[in-house]
């Protein structure tokens, strides 16, 4: 059995730390790094504290950047490498985000699959997920029934010209997400395996709705939304 992957804490890129603000964690795609998704921050609502994580694996030569799991697993549809990467994200949250009042995940491609898997492993810790050009890993996890009951908010955006994610995984995600989440999102005509400004406007609206939601404290009392 391979070692559990670990996030390099020294490589995490942070935005301004806003006391009491929700934490938005960015999970980049295959062959990229923690700097990539920071280009999206100007399009997102201000009240978040933002942290962009580096994937734990080095992408195989000659691909630059990093990966969350070996890309071949995408074709084999083996969920365990995605689960291992999600555990690495949870371990990082234990170490560096224990005091965050709310945690939301935004991932692209591989990073989106890891974001959804993290939600599945610890639904009580993740408030919402933004899935950009990603997919839900196949297979069942022990806490999936909790998601089916709780229906946490998930945004899913993908393009009609995205030829990177296999059709079988897109079809699986299209069936799995509505059954386990309060799903919103769009299919963008002509968009490839990328993100458009139109999509980012939809993501911003989705996140603003999450910011406006009341929050329960540890005693189950409802209070105002933090950071607003």
Automatic annotation (TrEMBL):
User: What keywords are assigned to this protein?
Assistant: Hydrolase
Which molecular function term from Gene Ontology is one that the record holds? hydrolase activity
According to its UniProt record, what is one Pfam family this protein matches?
Abhydrolase_2
Domain annotation Phospholipase/carboxylesterase/thioesterase: ranges: 16-208
Domain of life, source organism: Bacteria
Record-linked InterPro entries: AB_hydrolase_fold, LYPA1-2/EST-like, PLipase/COase/thioEstase
> What family does the Swiss-Prot or TrEMBL record give for this protein?
Belongs to the AB hydrolase superfamily. AB hydrolase 2 family.
This one is known as Phospholipase/carboxylesterase
Native organism:
Microbacterium pseudoresistens
């Amino acid at each position: 059995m391979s070692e559990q992957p670990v996030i390099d804490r020294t490589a995490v890129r942070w935005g301004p730390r806003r006391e009491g603000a929700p934490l938005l964690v960015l999970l980049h795609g295959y062959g990229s790094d923690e700097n990539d998704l920071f280009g999206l921050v100007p399009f997102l609502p201000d009240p978040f504290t933002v942290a962009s994580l580096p994937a734990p694996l080095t992408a195989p030569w000659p691909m630059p950047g990093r990966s969350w799991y070996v890309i071949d697993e995408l074709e084999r549809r083996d969920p365990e490498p995605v689960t291992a990467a999600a555990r690495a994200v949870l371990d990082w949250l234990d170490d560096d985000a224990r005091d965050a009042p709310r945690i939301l995940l935004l991932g692209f491609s591989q990073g989106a699959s890891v974001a959804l898997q993290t939600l599945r492993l610890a639904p009580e810790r993740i408030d919402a997920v933004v899935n950009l050009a990603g997919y839900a890993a196949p297979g069942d996890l022990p806490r999936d029934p909790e998601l089916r009951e709780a229906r946490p908010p998930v945004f899913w955006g993908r393009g009609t010209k995205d030829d990177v994610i296999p059709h079988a995984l897109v079809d699986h995600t299209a069936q799995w997400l509505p059954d386990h989440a309060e799903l919103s999102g769009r299919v963008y005509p002509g968009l490839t395996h990328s993100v458009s400004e139109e999509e980012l406007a939809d993501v911003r609206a989705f996140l603003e709705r999450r910011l406006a939601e009341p929050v329960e404290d540890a005693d189950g009392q409802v209070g105002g939304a933090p950071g607003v």
